[in-house]
Fold this sequence. Notes:
Blueprint: H1 5-34, H2 38-41, E1 49-50, E2 53-54, H3 63-66, H4 70-79, H5 101-116, H6 125-134, H7 144-154, E3 160-169, E4 185-188, E5 206-216, E6 220-229, E7 232-236, E8 239-244, E9 251-259, E10 262-272, E11 278-285, E12 289-292, H8 313-318
Antiparallel strand pairs: 1-2, 3-4, 3-5, 5-10, 6-9, 6-11, 7-8, 7-10, 11-12
Helix pairs in contact: 1-5, 4-5, 4-6, 5-6
Amino acid sequence: MKSILPVFTTLLALISTTGLSQDQKVMELGQQTFQLCVACHGPDGKGVKAGDLTMAPSLPESGYIKGNHLDLITAVVLKGILKEDNKYVQAMLPLEVALNDEQIAAVVSYVTRQYGGDKKALATPADISKWRKKYKSQGSPYKRKDLEGMLKSANAPQLLSEVSYEVFTGSWKKLPDFSSLKAEKSGVMKNNLVSLNPAKGIKKPFGMVFEAKLTVPKSEDYHFTLSSDDGAVLAIDGEGLIDNDGIHPNKAKTEKEPLEAGEHTIKVLYFDGGGNRNLSLSVKTKSLGTIALSTEKITKGKKGQNYEPVSYTHLRAHETEADL
C-alpha cells in the first residue's frame, strides 16, 4: 500500500496557499481602499504634516489598532470624527454610505495588519454587517472624548464571572419572593454579562434573577448604576445597595460602595410588569473609568435621590438554606 503522506502534505500545502491567497486579496483591496485616507494619514500612516499641525492622527500609535479593536475601528470608519479643536487639521468624514461591507472589512484589516502587526485578526464582511447594526443609532460623527471612553471600556478588565440566571413568569407590581416560584428556565451567560436576552421570546410579564462573582482589581470606591423598566434591586456581598423596585418607566439609580480588591458576590433581581423592558448595569471607578456589566446600555434618565437603606426582604427571601 502506498503511503498517503505525500497526498496529505499536498492537501495541507493547497489549503495554506488558498488561505494566503485570500489574505492577499483582502490586503490588496484594503490597500486600494486606504487611498481614500492617504491625503490625511499619509502612506506611512503617521499623519501628513501641515506646518506645525498634523492632518490626522498617527495610525501606528492608535490604541484601536494596537489593541486590535476591529469593531471600534469600524465605528470610526462608518461614522467619522468631528473636528472640535485645532489638534488635527481635518475632521474624519463618515464612510458608511461610500463603502460597502467588503471594502470596509478590507480597509480595517489592512490598517490593522499594516500598522499593528502581522498577527492581527482580519475583519470579514459579515462582521461589518453586524457592526453596522451595532452602531446604527450613532447619527452623527463621534466626538473624540466619546471614542476615548469606548476604547477605555474595551480595554477594561472583565469584572463578572460565573454569571447565572433564572427566568420566571408572573404578574407583579413589586419584586416577588422568587424562591417560592418555579423557574421557567435557567442557565449561564457565556459572555459573563447581565442580559434580558434569555427572556427574549417571552411575551408576558416575567422576572429574572442573576448571580455572579465580582472580582475587582483595586481597593477603591465603586459607583454602581442600575437602570430598569420596571423594578430591579442590586446587592453586593449579600447586602442591598440599589433599590429600583416597583412599576415605573426606565430610570437609573447610582450608589457608591467601597470594595476591597479581590472577589465579591453580586445579585440582581428584576421584573417586567408589561410594556417596555430594560435592565442595564455599569460600574465606575477613578482608576478604571466606566465598565458595562450588562449587554444593554445604561439609558439616560432621571437618577434616584438619596433614600433609606434598601429593604433586604426580596434578597433574603431568595436565599436558600445553602446560602444561609
